[in-house]
Amino acid sequence: MSDDVRIGSESIRLGQFLKFAGLIDSGGDAKEAIIDGYVQVNGEVERRRGRQLVDGDRVTFDGRTVRVRP
User: Fold this and answer.
1) How far apart are CA 40 and CA 59, in angstroms?
2) DSSP state letter for 9
3) Which of 11, 18, 40, 64 has its CB surrounded by the most CB atoms within 10 Å?
4) pLDDT for residue 15 is more than 80
5) pTM for the full model?
């Protein structure tokens, strides 16, 4: 099960979303977590901080999964 996080637009970059959703504290921490392979998008490890997330994408970090909603 995942929580929905409403982003207020059609898309958002992964690094921004991690902070916005409260999964991570800072942009620097987000960058490290993504580069080190600790973040998954739709069940796959994602290493691109600029990856555009859209409605329905599921982001998992540190055992918590959230779903992107516009």
Assistant:
1) 6
2) S
3) 18
4) yes
5) 0.94
